[in-house]
UniProtKB/TrEMBL annotation:
Coiled coil: none
A Pfam family of this chain: DUF1648
Protein name per Swiss-Prot or TrEMBL: DUF1648 domain-containing protein
Organism listed in the record: Peribacillus butanolivorans
Keyword Transmembrane: yes
Domain of life: Bacteria
UniProt KW keywords: Membrane, Transmembrane, Transmembrane helix
InterPro entries: DUF1648 (IPR012867)
Residues covered by the DUF1648 domain: 25-71
Residue spans crossing the bilayer: 21-38, 58-81, 102-124, 144-164
Signal peptide coordinates: none
Length: 167
């Protein structure tokens, strides 16, 4: 036990492995897309969008690599942390009886949130290129609210699942 929590190794489900592969494919596709578009990018690209979805900050074209780097870092860190769910903080007492269920829920939540964030980062990266080369005028006003509803909805789903069988 670590911090009075059982230490269990929880293997990923096939579904979780597929989502991880999907996330990696998204990252690779983003890198391929940026390499392909690199020669068409102007010297200045958007590096920030305001709440209305308008480009509010511009930087050198190398800044276009920031989001894929964040995606790779995020994928790596979260994938590593998913292997040790017993170090997570849980809002309920973790016991020998509920540890496996809680750890599986936490692992599944991490896999889903990771994929959702990576998809949003890919979309934002793609939109940045589109705005840079004049194909689009901005990110749009609905993208961030939709992303937040999806992300917070997923968190709420897994949070409710966490308490469903807790006694």
């Amino acid at each position: 036990m670590k911090n009075n929590q059982p230490v269990l190794k929880i293997p990923k489900t096939v579904y979780e492995k597929l989502i991880d592969i999907f996330s990696l494919i998204i990252i690779v596709l983003n890198l391929i897309y940026l390499i392909n578009e690199w020669s068409t990018l102007p010297d200045q690209v958007p590096m920030h969008f305001n709440a209305k979805g308008e480009a509010g900050g511009w930087g050198g074209r190398a800044v276009i690599w920031f989001l894929p780097i964040v995606s790779i870092f995020l994928w790596s860190i979260l994938t590593t942390l998913e292997r040790v769910p017993y170090i997570f903080n849980f809002p309920v007492k973790v016991t020998e009886q509920n540890a496996e269920r809680l750890y599986k829920n936490a692992q599944a939540m991490s896999v889903i949130l990771k994929a959702e964030i990576i998809v949003f980062l890919l979309y934002t990266s793609w939109k940045s290129v589109q705005v840079s080369v004049g194909r689009e005028v901005g990110l749009g006003i609905l993208e961030l609210p939709i992303f937040l509803v999806v992300l917070l909805g997923s968190i709420a789903f897994f949070r409710v699942r966490l308490f469903l069988k807790v006694k």
